[in-house]
Amino acid sequence: MAAGKGTRLGCTDIPKVMLEIGGQPLVSYTVETLEKMNFFPGRICLVVGFKKEKVMEYFGDRVNYVVQEELLGTAHAAYLGMQALPKEVNQVLVMGGDDSAFYSPEALQNLFHEHEIKGAILTLLTAEIENPGQLGRIVRHADGSAEIIEKEYLTEEQKLIKEISTGTFVFNRQWFEKMFPTMPKLRKLGEFGLPTALAMARKENVPYQLVKLSNSREWFGVNTPEEKEEAERRKSL
Questions:
Q1: Which domains are seen in the chain, by residue range?
Q2: Which residues does residue 93 pair with via DSSP β-bridges, in sequence order?
Q3: What angle do CA 233, 110, 144 make, to 5 degrees?
Q4: pLDDT tens digits for 172-181?
Q5: Which of 8, 10, 12, 62 lies at a 20 to 30 A Cα distance from 199?
Q6: Sign of CA dihedral 15, 165, 199, 33
Q7: pLDDT tens digits, 59-83
Q8: Cα–Cα distances in Å, from 5 out to 1, 56, 120?
Q9: Cβ burial, residue 148 (10 Å; 0-12/13-18/19+)
């Protein structure tokens, strides 16, 4: 997903994912990782929007594109992206272009492996981090179910939880494409968010699972100038 504006980072001439980290655009690291995993161009789709031509000029025919004309949320972006994939693709990896630059091929291959061997309809990658701050949390229940609670709705007890959603999912394509038209919008944002997909899977009682990232440092979101500076530092190591 590469359609965001990056307002907090002062992006006026380029989309957020084209900010340079370590001398190259943020999202280019994600594309390189997918290429190392032998994803060929037709199976890598960038959902673009704001200043889309900047992304297209950089990647050319290395990837597929779909334009999100209206920024209606992450689930909407995922749905559009799926439409651009070859018909034979049954399982779809969905990632944010602004927080996936540090993933290793091994971590994503493990996510796919777990998704396939468990026969899951939805697999969510989570991470345990020291200072979740304003991030939503993963709440696991005694019956084995789980949900994503967004920061606006966290109780004081839930704020102590350190496990967060990375926003990286593997979906059964047929299920997602059928489910999305029935998905409600997020109440406070008025858009379609991927966290709701987990709620829909729970509601429909389809098999889903959470896979925790073994190295939590592989997930890192770049949303503020401070986080951009930290990303630069990490890429220089």
A1: 7-222 (3.90.550.10)
A2: 170
A3: 105
A4: 999 999 999 9
A5: 8
A6: positive
A7: 999 999 999 988 899 999 999 999 9
A8: 12, 16, 33
A9: buried
